[in-house]
C-alpha cells in the first residue's frame, strides 16, 4: 500500500511538472511578449523592450525556467499582465467554483451512471438496450448545448432554477446548490453515460465469474450476490473511469462556466487566453492540474480500499 | 476474425451491416460533402444579413430561420461543418502519428522502455486538456489547426493507454507463429503483422477520438475561439443562440442538432466497428424457465437412499439435449464417482442437482428425489433453501472459486450467520473450527487472508470449509483436485475421505480421473455422451468392467489401482465423444467401439450388471460369455480429449 501510494504521488507530481513545462514552452514559443501585453497597443517597441527587460523576459530561457519553476513550487505565479493583481489570489477565489462543479458532477455521474449500469446488467436484454441507447445519445450531446437547452426548459419555461449566476457556499447551502444545479446536471449527464457503460460491463463480467457460482451454491440470496459481490467488483473499473471523467468534466466546466456566468477558473482562463495574460495562463494550468491530481489521488486511495490486492501489497 | 473473413466474402464490411454503422458512416460522409460544397449551393451567403427578417423561425424563405442579424441559419449550419470535420481529422492523424509509434516501440521492447513510456503517457493523460488548450490559444493565438495538433499530442497518451494491451497481445500471437516473422526487420514486422492485427481497435479508437475532437473544436468556438465572424461555427452559433434564448429559442436547434448528430455519427460508427462485446449476457435465476418434471415415483424402495435420480434429461433451451435418461442412487454416507471424458455431461448432471444450470440450460424431464422430495425443476425460491444447507458444491478451480475482494473471514462468517443464526463472534469461532477441520493449521492467519494470498491447495480447503458452513448432507465435488499439484491432490482427497467419515455426508465426485475415483469412491457411474453407460460398486466396475467404454478407459491404464494419483489416468481412446445434438441412434459409443456390430445401431435398454448395477451395451451378455478384452491402443494420439467442452 505505501509503495502504491508513493507511486501514484510521484505520477501526480510529474503531471503538475509536465503541465507547467508545457505551458512555459507554449508561452515562450510565441513572438508576443509580456511587455507588449502589459503596456497595450499604444506602446513603442522601445518601451516594450524596457518593460520586457524589467520583467526578466530577456534572460536565458533556462534561467527563467528554473526561476519560474522555483516560484511555482511556492505557488507564486506573479502578477497578471492585465489587471496587475496577484495571480494566486485571483485564482484561489475561482478554483473552488470550478472544483465544486466538477466534483459534484463527477459524484452525480458516478451515482446515476452506476445505478443505470446495474439496472442494465441485471434487468435483461430490453433494459440493457434502452440504457445503452440512452448513453450513446448522451455521450454525443455537447454539454454547452445541453446547458442551453436545460436553461431554456428549467430556468425560462418552468422557472425552477436560476439560469445564471453563482451563490457562494457561505451564503447558504440551499442557494449554493441551486446556483450549481443546472451546470452540474448539464455536465453529469455525459459522465453518467460513460459510467453506465462501464458499470454495466463490469457487473456483467463479475456475474459471469466462477465465484458467483460458489456463492449460489451456498444459497447466497440474489440481492447479496448482485449488490454486495458483483457491484463491489464492478466498482473497481467504475472508480477508474471516474478519475478520467473528472478530468473531462473539469474541462467541460471550464467551458460551461461561460454559459452560466459562473466566476470559476474557466472564466479566468478565457480572459487570460483572450488577453494573452501569460502569468494567469500558467497559474490556471498549474492550479487546475493540481486539482485534477489531488482528485485522482483520492480516487486511487478509494481503489486501494476496494481492492485487497493493492491494499495488502 | 471470422467476421472479417466473412465480410470479405460478402464484400460489405461488417460494421456496415448494422443500422448504427450505416447511419454513422452515411451522416459523416453526407455532412462532409455538403459542407465543403456548401458555397456552391447554399441559398444565401453566410454573411448576408436581412435586418428585416431577424430571429425568425423556419419559413419557406429561410428553411431553418435566421439569427440576430438576419443571416440564414440553413446556409450557416451546413457551411460550418467543414472546419471541425477537417480539423478533427488532422487531430486524429497527429494523435495516432505520435501514439502508434510509441505503442509499437513499447510493445516490442517491453521492460524499462515500456515502463518509461507508460509513465510518460499516464502523466500526459492526467492533464486537464481544455485548460491547456486555452493556455495554448493565449500563447500562440487563436489558430485552430496548431491548437488541435497540441490536442492530438495530449490524446496520443490516452491512445497509448488503451491500445498498448492490444499491441502486446498481438505480438504474443506473433511469437506463436514465429515462422512467419522469422528474418523480418522490426519495422516490417510491425507494419506487416502487428498493425494489421490491431486494425479493428485502432479504427474504433479513431472514431471515438474523432467525436471528441468535434466536441472540443466546437467547445472552443463556443468560447469565441472559432473561425471568427462572419465565418460560421456550430459552437459559436450555439453561444449566439444562448444569448438570444429569450427572444428566439429556436435558434439553438439547428446548430445543436447538426453538431450532436455529427458527434453521434462518429460514436455510432465506433460502436459498429467494435461489434458486440464478448461479455455473456446475465440471466437472473428467477427468470429461468423451469419445466415441471415428472412426479416422484414413490414406488421404488427409497428406504435409505439419500438421492435418487431417475431418467434425468438436461437440454439447451431450443437446442440439443446435453444429458438424457440419467439414473443413479446415492445412499447416506456413500461416495459416488461420476466419471467420463470431458463433454459427456458430468458437470451438467451434477449442477442440475443444485438447480445451478447455466442460463438457457434446463432439466426437461425425469426426477431428482432428494430425501424423499422431488427437487428437479424446483422454483428458485425453493431451490435456494436447499443449496448449502442440504446440498453443497466445490468446484474445479479453487483460485477463482472465492471472491477476490472479500476476506476469508467475511466469506465464511456471512453464510455461517445465515445458516446457523449465530452472532459475529460465534460465527468467527465456528469459522476457525471449520478451517481446522479442513486441515488448516494456522487458521487464525488464513482467516485474515484474501484469496490472492492463498495457495491453490489452501484455497481449495477454504472452499471446502465454505461448503461445510451449512452442514450439508451431500457434497458435490466437481473435479476438486484437477487444478492442483499432485501432492496437494492426495491431501485434498484424504481430507474428503476424513470428512465423510466424520460427518456422515454423501459425496458425489465428478472426475475424469479413474485413479481418484478408485481412491475414495464406494460406487461409480461411468458416463458417456450424456448417458450413464455402466454403474456399480467401484470394486466391481473397475476390476471387472462390463461395458466396452469402461474397458477402454481401463485398458490403456494398467495402473489404476495404484495409490499415488496421477494427473492423467484416463486412457486415450481414438476418436472423440460425439457432440450433443449429434448422437447416433442406438449406442453412442459405436463409432469408437472395438466390438460394434449391426445390432448396436438400434435403440436398446440397459442390461443389469454387477450386483445391483447396469451396463448400457446390447452385447454385454455376449461379450462376457466370450471373455472379450479391449485391445490396448497407442497412447498420446488423442491429447485433445481433455479440452473441456462447455
Ligand atoms: S452396444 Fe455395441 S457399440 Fe455400444 S458399447 Fe456395446 S458393443 Fe460397443
Going by CATH, the homologous superfamily of the largest domain in chain B would be: MetI-like
Low-confidence stretches of chain A: none
User: What characterizes the major β-sheet of chain B?
Assistant: 8 strands, mixed
**CA-to-CA gap between the ends of chain B?**
21 Å
CATH architecture of the largest domain in chain B: Orthogonal Bundle
CATH level 1 class label of the largest domain in chain B: Mainly Alpha
CATH architecture of the domain at 96-264 in chain A: Orthogonal Bundle
Q: What would you give as the CATH superfamily of the domain at 96-264 in chain A? A: MetI-like
Percentage of residues assigned to helices of chain A: over 70%
Number of strands of chain B: 12
Strand content of chain A: under 5%
CATH topology name of the domain at 96-264 in chain A, in short, is: MetI-like fold
Total number of strands of chain A: 0
CATH topology of the largest domain in chain B: MetI-like fold
Question: Shape of chain B, please?
Answer: elongated
- Series of secondary-structure elements of chain A, N-terminal to C-terminal: HHHHHHHHHHHHH
Strand sequence of the main sheet of chain B, in spatial order? Answer: 6-7-8-3-9-10-12-11
Query: How many helix segments of chain A?
Result: 13
Jot down its keywords.
heterodimer, A: 313 residues, mainly alpha, MetI-like fold, globular, B: 646 residues, alpha/beta, Rossmann fold, 3 domains, eight-stranded mixed β-sheet, four-stranded antiparallel β-sheet, 12 strands, elongated, disordered N terminus, binds iron/sulfur cluster
How does this model look, in words?
The complex is a heterodimer of chains A (313) and B (646). By secondary structure, chain A is mainly alpha-helical. Chain A has a domain at 96-264: MetI-like fold, CATH 1.10.3720.10. Chain A has helices at 2-28, 34-39, 45-55, 61-73, 87-122, 124-140, 143-157, 173-207, 210-217, 222-260, 265-274, 278-306, 308-311. The model of chain A has no long low-confidence stretch (mean pLDDT 87). Chain B is of the alpha/beta class. Chain B folds into three domains: 20-43 and 69-277, MetI-like (MetI-like fold), CATH 1.10.3720; 295-526, P-loop containing nucleotide triphosphate hydrolases (Rossmann fold), CATH 3.40.50.300; 539-626, no CATH class. Helices cover 48% and strands 11% of the residues of chain B. Chain B is built from 24 helices and twelve strands. Chain B is elongated and about 105 Å long. At the A-B interface, α1, α6, α7, α8 and α9 of A face α5, α6, α10, α11 and α12 of B. Iron/sulfur cluster (SF4) is lined by residues 548, 587, 589-590, 593, 595-596, 600, 617-619 of chain B. Iron/sulfur cluster binds at residues 548, 587, 589-590, 593, 595-596, 600, 617-619 of chain B.
Amino acid at each position: 500500500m505505501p509503495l502504491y501510494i508513493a507511486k501514484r504521488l510521484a505520477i501526480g507530481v510529474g503531471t503538475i511538472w509536465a503541465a507547467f513545462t508545457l505551458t512555459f514552452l507554449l508561452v515562450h514559443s510565441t513572438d508576443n511578449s509580456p511587455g507588449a501585453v502589459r503596456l497595450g497597443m499604444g506602446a513603442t517597441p522601445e518601451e516594450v523592450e524596457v518593460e520586457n527587460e524589467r520583467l526578466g523576459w530577456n534572460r536565458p530561457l533556462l534561467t527563467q525556467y528554473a526561476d519560474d519553476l522555483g516560484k511555482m513550487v511556492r505557488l507564486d505565479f506573479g502578477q497578471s499582465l492585465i489587471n496587475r493583481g496577484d495571480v494566486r489570489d485571483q485564482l484561489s477565489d475561482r478554483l473552488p467554483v470550478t472544483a465544486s462543479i466538477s466534483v459534484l458532477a463527477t459524484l452525480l455521474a458516478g451515482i446515476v451512471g452506476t445505478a443505470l449500469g446495474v439496472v442494465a446488467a441485471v434487468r435483461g436484454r430490453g433494459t440493457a438496450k434502452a440504457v445503452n441507447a440512452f448513453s450513446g445519445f448522451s455521450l454525443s450531446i455537447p454539454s454547452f448545448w445541453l446547458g442551453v437547452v436545460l436553461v431554456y426548459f428549467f430556468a425560462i419555461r418552468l422557472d425552477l432554477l436560476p439560469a445564471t449566476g453563482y451563490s457562494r457556499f457561505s451564503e447558504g447551502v440551499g442557494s449554493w446548490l441551486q446556483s450549481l444545479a443546472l451546470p452540474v446536471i448539464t455536465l453529469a449527464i455525459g459522465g453518467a453515460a460513460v459510467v453506465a457503460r462501464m458499470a454495466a460491463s463490469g457487473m456483467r463480467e463479475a456475474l459471469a465469474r466462477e465465484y458467483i457460482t460458489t456463492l449460489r451454491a451456498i444459497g447466497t440470496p440474489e440481492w447479496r450476490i448482485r449488490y454486495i459481490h458483483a457491484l463491489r467488483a464492478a466498482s473497481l473499473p467504475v472508480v477508474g473511469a471516474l478519475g478520467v471523467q473528472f478530468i473531462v468534466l473539469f474541462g467541460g466546466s471550464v467551458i460551461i462556466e461561460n454559459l452560466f456566468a459562473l466566476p470559476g477558473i474557466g472564466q479566468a482562463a478565457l480572459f487570460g487566453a483572450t488577453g494573452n495574460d501569460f502569468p494567469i495562463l500558467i497559474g490556471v494550468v498549474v492550479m487546475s492540474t493540481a486539482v485534477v491530481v489531488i482528485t485522482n489521488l483520492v480516487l486511487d486511495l478509494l481503489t486501494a480500499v476496494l481492492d485487497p490486492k493493492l491494499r495488502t501489497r | 476474425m471470422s467476421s472479417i473473413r466473412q465480410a470479405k466474402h460478402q464484400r460489405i464490411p461488417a460494421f456496415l451491416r448494422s443500422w448504427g454503422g450505416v447511419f454513422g458512416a452515411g451522416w459523416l460522409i453526407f455532412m462532409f460533402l455538403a459542407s465543403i460544397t456548401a458555397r456552391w449551393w447554399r441559398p444565401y451567403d453566410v454573411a448576408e444579413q436581412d435586418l428585416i427578417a431577424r430571429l425568425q423561425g423556419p419559413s419557406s424563405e429561410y428553411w431553418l430561420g435566421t439569427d440576430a442579424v438576419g443571416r440564414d441559419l440553413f446556409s450557416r449550419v451546413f457551411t460550418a461543418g467543414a472546419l471541425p470535420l477537417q480539423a478533427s481529422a488532422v487531430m486524429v492523424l497527429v494523435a495516432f502519428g505520435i501514439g502508434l509509434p510509441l505503442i509499437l516501440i513499447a510493445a516490442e521492447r517491453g521492460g524499462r522502455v515500456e515502463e518509461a513510456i507508460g509513465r510518460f503517457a499516464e502523466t500526459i493523460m492526467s492533464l486537464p486538456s481544455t485548460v491547456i488548450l486555452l493556455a495554448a490559444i493565449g500563447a500562440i493565438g487563436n489558430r485552430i489547426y496548431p491548437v488541435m495538433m497540441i490536442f492530438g499530442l495530449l490524446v496520443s497518451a490516452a491512445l497509448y493507454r488503451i491500445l498498448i494491451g492490444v499491441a502486446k497481445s498481438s505480438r504474443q500471437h506473433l511469437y506463436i507463429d514465429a515462422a512467419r516473422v522469422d528474418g523480418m526487420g522490426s519495422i516490417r514486422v510491425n507494419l506487416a503483422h502487428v498493425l494489421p492485427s490491431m486494425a479493428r481497435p485502432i479504427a474504433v479508437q479513431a472514431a471515438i477520438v474523432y467525436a471528441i475532437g468535434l466536441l472540443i473544436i466546437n467547445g472552443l468556438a463556443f468560447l469565441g475561439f472559432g473561425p471568427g465572424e462572419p465565418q460560421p461555427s456550430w459552437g459559436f452559433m450555439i453561444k449566439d443562440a444562448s444569448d438570444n434564448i429569450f427572444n428566439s429559442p429556436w435558434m439553438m436547434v439547428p446548430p445543436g442538432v447538426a453538431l450532436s448528430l455529427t458527434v453521434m455519427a462518429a460514436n455510432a460508427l465506433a460502436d459498429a466497428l467494435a461489434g458486440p462485446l464478448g461479455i455473456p449476457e446475465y440471466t437472473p435465476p428467477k427468470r429461468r424457465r423451469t419445466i415441471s418434471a415428472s412426479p416422484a415415483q414413490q414406488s421404488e424402495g427409497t428406504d435409505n437412499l439419500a438421492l435418487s435420480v431417475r431418467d434425468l434429461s438436461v437440454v439447451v433451451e431450443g437446442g440439443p439435449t446435453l444429458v438424457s435418461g440419467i439414473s443413479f442412487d446415492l445412499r447416506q454416507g456413500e461416495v459416488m464417482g461420476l466419471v467420463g471424458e470431458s463433454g459427456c455431461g458430468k458437470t451438467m448432471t451434477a449442477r442440475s442437482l443444485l438447480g445451478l444450470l447455466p442460463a438457457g440450460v434446463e432439466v426437461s424431464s425425469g426426477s431428482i428425489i432428494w430425501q424423499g422430495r422431488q427437487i428437479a425443476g424446483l422454483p428458485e425460491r425453493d431451490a435456494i433453501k436447499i443449496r448449502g444447507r442440504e446440498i453443497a458444491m466445490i468446484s474445479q478451480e479453487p483460485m477463482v472459486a472465492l471472491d477476490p475482494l472479500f476476506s476469508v473471514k467475511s466469506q465464511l462468517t456471512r453464510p455461517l450467520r445465515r445458516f446457523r443464526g449465530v452472532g459475529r463472534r460465534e460465527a468467527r469461532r465456528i469459522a476457525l473450527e471449520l478451517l481446522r477441520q479442513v486441515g488448516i493449521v494456522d487458521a487464525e492467519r488464513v482467516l485474515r487472508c484474501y484469496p490472492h494470498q492463498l495457495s491453490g491447495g489452501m484455497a481449495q480447503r477454504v472452499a471446502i470449509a465454505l461448503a461445510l458452513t451449512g452442514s450439508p448432507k451431500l457434497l458435490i465435488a466437481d473435479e476438486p483436485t484437477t487444478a492442483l499439484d499432485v501432492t496437494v491432490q492426495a491431501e485434498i482427497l484424504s481430507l474428503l475421505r476424513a470428512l465423510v467419515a466424520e460427518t456422515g455426508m454423501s459425496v458425489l465426485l465428478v472426475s475424469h480421473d479413474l485413479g481418484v475415483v478408485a481412491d475414495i469412491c464406494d460406487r461409480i457411474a461411468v458416463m458417456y455422451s450424456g448417458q450413464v453407460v455402466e454403474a456399480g460398486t467401484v470394486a466391481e466396475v473397475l476390476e471387472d468392467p462390463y461395458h466396452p467404454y469402461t474397458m477402454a478407459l481401463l485398458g490403456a491404464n494398467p495402473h489404476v489401482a495404484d495409490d499415488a494419483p496421477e494427473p492423467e489416468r484416463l486412457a486415450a481412446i481414438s476418436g472423440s465423444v460425439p457432440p450433443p445434438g449429434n448422437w447416433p441412434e442406438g449406442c453412442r459409443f459405436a463409432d469408437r467401439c472395438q466390438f460394434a456390430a449391426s445390432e448396436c445401431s438400434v435403440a436398446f435398454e440397459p442390461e443389469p450388471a454387477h450386483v445391483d448395477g447396469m451396463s448400457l451395451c446390447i452385447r454385454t451378455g455376449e461379450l462376457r460369455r466370450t471373455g472379450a478384452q479391449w485391445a490396448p491402443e497407442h497412447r498420446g494420439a488423442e491429447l485433445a480429449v481433455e479440452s473441456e467442452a462447455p
